[in-house]
Amino acid sequence: MAVGRKRNYEKLKDKWIKKHEELSADLFTKHRESLDWLSKNTKQIAATSLGSLILLASPGSPTLRLPDTQAQTFPIELDSKIFLISDLEKLLPQEIRELTPDEEEKIGQILSRDFGVKATAVLDGKRLNRSYGLIGAEQHLARFPGDNMSAHFDNPEEARLHYSSGMAPGLSAWGYFAPSKEQMTEEDKDRERYYIAVQTFLAPDFNQKVEQYRDFFRFRKMLVVNPQNGKGIVTAIGDAGPAVWTGKHLGGSPEVMKYLERQDGRARGPVLYYFIDDSQNVVPLGPIDVVK
Amino acid sequence: MKKYFYSHIVETSSISLTLSEIDMTNEERAHLSKLAESHLHHAILNTVLSELSEDDKKIFLTHLSEDDHDKIWALLKEKISDIEGKIKNAGEMLKKELHKDIEDSKKE
Lengths: 292, 108
What we know:
Chain A has 292 residues and is of the alpha+beta class.
């Protein structure tokens, strides 16, 4: 397999480097005068020889031109999330708005590919009002009657990280996660630990099919991704909200927000949120890595 | 992660996505993606420059060197009719070639 892989890469690399040289030559031949002028009049490139450069806007800096060799040199080792961040960046709009069906579909393909789960904005014909929006920080939720902050954490480290978020005064839209402390399962704990609140009440046709939608949304798994750092987490819909007037589109538990690093000064930021098609209930809740 | 002045017209993620279907390392895929982006950049610059007078080429290149997309588009829209369509066509034609190259590499 290694030989086959190398062949595919080598073949394309050889062909594309040749193509690159042809395109460069064509560009510089046709527009030599103005490119020469630029090289003499722009400090940024004055010290370099035009013939050895390509014009290429480079991440993080305006203009720029990378030496030919740089485009042809094997790059250094990459974080596996780089492709995800890059692919999403190219598809996501500058402003935080509802995605078009085409954008939603393409992004769903990227998320499915990179996280190895089936991520979709529409599941069983049902969807939320949007799949890209501002997430805000929520509080912990009571998991069973009598749950409180002093009993909420499994260990001191969890308490140290998340105690300060406090507990919401009311119950979640689905009530308690378990009937009692004794009957609470690990899955119940994870559902609260990794819960999100989404605007179920704004889903298309929600008012006509309240019961059906409530059952569908209750603890439904969703992949939530911070497109700016490529971090993804499998969450459960544990509550309905936030209210429209808040300007936020969904809420995340303290654990979800911490993992996604959506903890800027206002504890909010854009995320993608897609249903996970997991009818066999095999995708675990919690952080999920990009598939290598 | 930088946006080029034509990023909203020519998407490049499809090349990277198609490359991901081939058995190669992330580093190899990154290299080929970078080359593909560079190809598109050259082709689009060539398309734009070919439509401008020598004086306007200099203005365009100055705006490009300053990465000022607003000024770039103000100039291009004033000087070239249907510049967006022309950039899109140039990008799509090259992408078609690149996709064909990828398909061919699987067969050979």
